[in-house]
Amino acid sequence: MLDKEWEFWVDHTPMLNSRKAQPERIPKRYYFIFDTYSNDVIYMSKSFVDITGYEIPKSMYEVIPRIHPDDVDYCIECERKIILFLNDLFFEDNFRFNTVYSYRIKTNFGHYIFIKQYYQALEVDEKGFMSKSIVYHEVMPANYKRSENDFVVMDLLKNRPVVSNNIYNLSKRELEIIDFISEGLSTKEISEKIAISEHTIRTHRKNILQKTNTNSFIELIKKLKQG
């Protein structure tokens, strides 16, 4: 029997009693875990059945044929990018990033839905490669349209897309300054940290906003997070 001071851990619901239910904020999605070598589905959430109308698959090979024919080439291109990116990651680095892109799948109800796929490492093998992954499929609104910058590799440590330097052609120094601004550092603090003048920092800040066509760094950071 646990000591009394641990009771909150076993039943912590009294600590949450003041929180109101907000079902409208719960995204319509399902998630699954699969073996990246065999493509076997190890676990699939029950919401998959409600959303797609299909029985829970045993392999990803059952899921792939349901991709909209017009999205197949795009999915192949995105998966190639993911594999090439992951090939350069080893051990703990695998958990630092997740990838996001969207496509349509056919439901067993006879219509297509747009899903946004979030893909992240769950387990790494002895060679340092991702061996198991957890994937979320979030159902997008009926009027959803895929953006030009749909494919995103998110750096969870820096809280921004890795591909942002390709999208906006930002230099390494500019990306470094964005990271410092995201952390809440002032122009003076950034200047002291990287040993360049405040004037140069202000010039970099101005150039960053011009390159990204944004009016403020609050707007820019929000844009980067959205990919």
Question: Could you explain the architecture of this structure?
Answer:
- This protein is of the alpha+beta class and 227 residues long.
- It folds into two domains: 131 residues, 2-Layer Sandwich (Beta-Lactamase); 63 residues, Winged helix-like DNA-binding domain superfamily/Winged helix DNA-binding domain (Arc Repressor Mutant, subunit A), CATH 1.10.10.
- 33% of the residues lie in helices and 22% in strands.
- The chain has eight helices and seven strands; from the N terminus they run αββααβββββααααα.
- The chain has a seven-stranded antiparallel sheet with strand order 2-1-5-4-3-6-7, with helices on both faces.
- A hairpin with a 5-residue loop joins β1 and β2.
- α5 packs across α7.
- The termini are far apart.
- The mean pLDDT is 91.
Q: Which labels suit this protein?
A:
227 residues; Beta-Lactamase; Arc Repressor Mutant, subunit A; seven-stranded antiparallel β-sheet; 7 strands; globular
Give the number of domains.
2
Looking at CATH, the homologous superfamily of the largest domain is PAS domain
Strand proportion, as a percent range, falls in 15-25%
Radius of gyration: 22 Å
> Alpha-carbon distance between the termini?
49 Å
